[in-house]
Amino acid sequence: MTVIVTAVTALISAGLGGWITLRAQDRLWRRDRQRQWRDIRLAAYTDHVNAVRAYVGYVLIPTTTITIVMRPIEPHDPMPFFDASGAVYRERLDATKTTLRLTADRSDTVRAANSMVRSARALAAARASHGLDSIPSERFTELWTAEREFVLHARAELGLANDFEIGDRPARAIAAGDRSAAALAAWVHEE
Q: 99 and 48 in contact (C-beta within 8 Å)?
């Protein structure tokens, strides 16, 4: 009888030890996988912001030629087109947007990226129709607000603090339930 009890105890101990080891390995694997995806997302988000800024930089070059064509379907907004040298910036913007959409974990991050791209394209359309020196300042405000909003969503998705301040301007208090703009992005409108 003692032999049976010893054998059963050894089997239970081995099974329990194996189960505990398996759980620990699973936790390590999940942590590594989360870290890998966080790094992939960080690279995608950084590349996207850099692509938007390069696009805007190209739009603001005095010799840039921009043509506007109205979108034939809803929302019928103006679509800016560049010459061959500007196509590189548009293609990079579109490629990084696609990468971001493939890697993002939250729909809010994708919506914020879409808003940033729409704002950059609206700035390009304004540049084409108004000229470099008379672009409405609202276009810049809209673009930088969209960028800040995107950064906040990306930081939240990456598990980073997103309640920080830029410079010495404190974040504006937002009414409960107001999701139109994060506190950091909202202070851009206060002047």
A: yes
Taking the C-alpha atoms of residue 158 and residue 165, their distance in angstroms, rounded to an integer, is 18
**Where are the domains positioned within the chain?**
34-189
Cβ atoms of 145 and 185 within 8 Å: the answer is yes
pLDDT of residue 164: 62
Q: What is the separation, in whole angstroms, between the first and last Cα of the chain?
A: 86
User: What is the average pLDDT across 144-154?
Assistant: 92
Given a contact cutoff of 8 angstroms between Cβ atoms, the answer to whether 55 and 88 are in contact is no
Question: Mean pLDDT in the chain?
Answer: 83
Do residues 123 and 21 lie in contact, with contact meaning Cβ atoms separated by under 8 Å?
no
Q: What's the token pair of residue 7?
A: 């054998």
Q: Give the CA distances from residue 60 to residues 57, 89, 143, in Å, rounded to whole numbers and listed in that order.
A: 5, 12, 14
Q: What single-letter amino acid sits at 2?
A: T
Phi, psi for 62 (deg, rounded to 5): -60, -30
Single pTM value for the model: 0.74
Please give the torsion angle defined by the CA atoms of residues 150, 152, 158 and 159, in that order, rounded to the nearest 10 degrees: -160
